[in-house]
Write a structure and sequence with these properties.
Elements lengths: L17 H8 L25 H14 L18 E2 L10 E6 L2 E7 L3 E9 L10 E9 L7 E11 L2 E11 L5 E5 L5 E9 L2 E8 L7 E6 L7 E7 L2 E2 L2 E2 L7 E11 L3 E2 L5 E8 L5 E5 L9 E5 L4
Parallel strand pairs: 2-17
Antiparallel strand pairs: 1-2, 3-12, 3-17, 4-9, 4-15, 5-6, 5-12, 6-7, 7-8, 9-10, 10-11, 13-14, 15-16, 15-19, 17-18, 18-19
Helix pairs in contact: 1-2
């Protein structure tokens, strides 16, 4: 990678915060029914929520993320210098370690990116009373450009309750689209595949098949200058939200391709990204890439 990208400020979302919506929708004390109770037992799957609560949570989250774009907020321009790791043998590209205010994972840089894929098991959140978010995704762009083509899953913690959805975005042509409910423990596959100016964005939930989707969108101005595999703290009305405690995000089967080359993450110039807050405290930490370059974990460290 040639130099570091400039800081890209996140747009503040507008509308009613999701926390307020969900608290308003929770059953009043002594008034809940079996079909309307928002939480049962200990396993936080969507099977324990009523359809009404889920629909309202999805609508509130969509509104909250109306102007969220998956672009990185860099901390390097605030004095947190990047460090260049030693080049690996066998033709593996050099690695740069950088810090971010909202991303943790890996990004490849170059030109002509046309495909990115990965699989993971949807993490289980440990929610507190504080509203928090955690998104997991693959994508093209956003690391060093103002365009993004991304999809994945998102956890929203509100009032101690966890809600799980999948989503996609192709910016600047549209806002984030929250699509279906998924469940913790589900087997997720995500991909973005480009053909010319057409992008096919797909999330497949092999466990809860109703959580799958695929959409094809067009973008003639997208840069195609990076590929990413990321755990993110998305933005809400007041900026970057606290990061939901997702434990460990385990990503595998990562692949990437350009118009002239394909491989895994280490087949291209790659950046290892650690999420930190404004004081430099680590919020989410990636592991080193597995020997074949298609697998890594991100561990939650702090919410803010």
């Amino acid at each position: 990678m040639q130099g570091l990208p400039k800081a890209l400020g996140r747009c503040a979302a507008v509308g009613v915060p999701v926390l307020g919506l969900l608290m308003a929708l929770s059953p009043a004390a002594g008034a809940s029914t079996a079909s309307d109770t928002a939480w049962h037992g200990h396993h936080p799957s969507h099977g324990h929520y009523s359809a009404r609560v889920l629909a309202s949570a999805k609508s509130g989250l969509q509104r909250m993320l109306a102007t969220w774009h998956g672009m990185d907020q860099w901390k390097n321009d605030q004095g947190l210098a990047a460090s260049k790791a030693s080049s690996n043998a066998n033709g593996i590209e050099a690695l740069t370690k950088v810090q971010s205010g909202n991303w943790s994972g890996y990004a490849d840089t170059g030109t002509g990116f046309s495909k990115v894929t990965a699989k993971w098991t949807e993490p289980t959140a440990k929610c507190t009373s504080t509203t928090s978010l955690a998104a997991f995704w693959v994508g093209i762009d956003g690391f060093a450009s103002n365009s993004v083509e991304q999809d994945g899953t998102i956890i929203e913690c509100s009032g101690g309750q966890a809600f799980y959805f999948d989503w996609w975005e192709l910016f600047p042509t549209n806002a984030v689209q929250v699509v279906n409910t998924v469940n913790p423990g589900d087997a997720i596959s995500a991909s973005v595949v480009r053909s010319g100016t057409s992008y096919k964005l797909s999330v497949t939930d092999s466990t809860t098949t109703s959580g799958s989707f695929s959409t094809t969108q067009a973008c003639s101005s997208c840069a195609n200058s990076s590929a990413e595999w990321i755990a993110e703290a998305p933005s809400g009305a007041s900026g970057v939200e606290p990061l939901s405690n997702f434990g460990v995000f385990k990503l595998h089967n990562a692949t990437v391709g350009t118009t002239s080359k394909s491989g895994d993450i280490i087949s291209f110039t790659d950046d290892e990204i650690t999420m930190v807050d404004s004081a430099g405290t680590v919020e989410a930490q990636p592991t080193s890439l597995a020997p074949l370059g298609g697998r890594f974990n991100v561990t939650w460290k702090s919410s803010t």
